[in-house]
Every structure is written in C-alpha cells, then in structure tokens.
Design goal:
The chain is of the alpha/beta class. It is built from eight helices and seven strands; from the N terminus they run βαβαααβαβαββαβα. The strands form two sheets. It has a five-stranded parallel sheet, with helices on both faces. A two-stranded antiparallel ribbon has the order 5-6.
Length: about 210
C-alpha cells in the first residue's frame, strides 16, 4: 500500500501542480477540497456546503469533514491518496486522523513545500489569467503575444489577489494559520520539508524520492 500523503505549501509554491504530478506518478487519487465541493454539487452535503459558500462564509468543519470522510471511503482511495488543501487546521487534522483510523489507514508523509517569500511574491505578481481559464507566468510561461491568451485570443489580466500587497497579506495569513499544522505533523515525525525554489521537474523528483 502506498499510503496517504498530505501536501502543504504557501500560495505560489506550486502545490496543486505537484499534487497532480505525484498522483499520476503513484497512480492514486489527487483530492483537493475544491474538487470535493464541486463533485458534491446536488448532494445533501454539497447543498449544505453551497448554502455557506453562497453567503460568502467558510464551510463549517462538520460539513467539510463529512465530505472528506465520504471521499476517503471510496474504493479508489484504498491504496492511498494525495490530500491537497486539507487539513488546514489542527481540529481538521485530528478529524482526519480519526477518519483514517476507522478506515484502518494512516498518513504516510506530510510534505511541506518551502519557497522564500520574495520568490513567491515575484511568481504570483507576474501571473496573468484569461477569462477562459488559461494561466500564464510572465517569467517562465509567458503568452506568445504580450497580454493576449494563446488559447482564445482574450485579454489577459492580473487578479486582484496577485498584486504584491495582496500576496504579502496572503502569505502572512498562510503562515499564521498553517504554522501550527506544520508543528503538529513535525512533532509526529511525519513532516518532510521540500525545497520548492527549483524547477517543476526538479521539485517533482525530490517529492517522489521523499515518498518512495
């Protein structure tokens, strides 16, 4: 059995990209809270979650934990999964531990992708997006024509939360909320720090070595 792997990382660390790459490499599901919420649309739990999101509120732990439990109980997670975006708090981590214990499973590794703040600020402030969903990075993944989407020809723009000031605030919030979780898993001997300042392939190889 491969086991369950948690990926932590600040905004701009490439955590989502690395989670997908690792899931493909290990042949186990990549599970993000966003995907779970979208997949639950139309279900009882999904409708409850939507009520909070439609009001601009956070989905309560009781609802989110129930959705995580339902997802982890599915057969494709029997050999393990990559958890991306969950847990975010100590209570959520405790709940995850209880869920896995009931399923006779455990957490194999918690990977913490570390990137210096100045590099994260540079990465995110250089990000441009298109209404079609395409994303570009002006430094290492620019569009063919400046300000124009390669896919649809639409105008590219910078998200409000990608300005330097917004990125700095996002990083402060992440550190404040996630540091207790990092300490929590470090105390259990599960945390492995990953240098996230290199290229995508280089980081992916380091992550793979850490879980092999």
């Amino acid at each position: 059995m491969i086991g369950n792997i948690i990926l932590l990382g600040p905004p701009g660390s490439g955590k989502g990209t690395q989670a997908k790459l690792l899931a493909e490499r290990l042949k186990i599901p990549h599970i993000s809270t966003g995907d779970i919420l979208r997949a639950a649309k139309g279900t009882e739990l999904g409708d409850r979650a939507a009520e909070y999101m439609n009001r601009g509120e956070l989905v309560p732990d009781t609802v989110l934990i129930a959705m995580i439990e339902d997802r982890l109980s599915q057969q494709d997670c029997a050999a393990g999964c990559i958890l991306d975006g969950y847990p975010r708090t100590i209570p959520q981590a405790d709940a995850l531990s209880e869920i896995l214990t009931e399923l006779n499973r455990e957490i194999k590794t918690v990977l913490d992708i570390e990137v210096p703040d100045d590099r994260l600020i540079t990465r995110l402030s250089a990000r441009r997006v298109c209404a079609c969903g395409a994303t570009y990075q002006l430094t290492f993944n620019p569009p063919q024509l400046e300000g124009v989407c390669d896919l649809c020809g639409g105008a590219l723009y910078q998200r409000d939360d990608d300005t330097e000031e917004s990125v700095r605030n996002r990083l402060l919030v992440y550190k404040r909320e996630t540091q207790p979780l990092i300490d929590y898993y470090r105390s259990q001997g599960l945390l492995v720090a990953i240098d996230g300042s290199g290229g995508i392939t280089e980081i992916a190889d380091e992550i793979y070595r850490a879980v092999s």
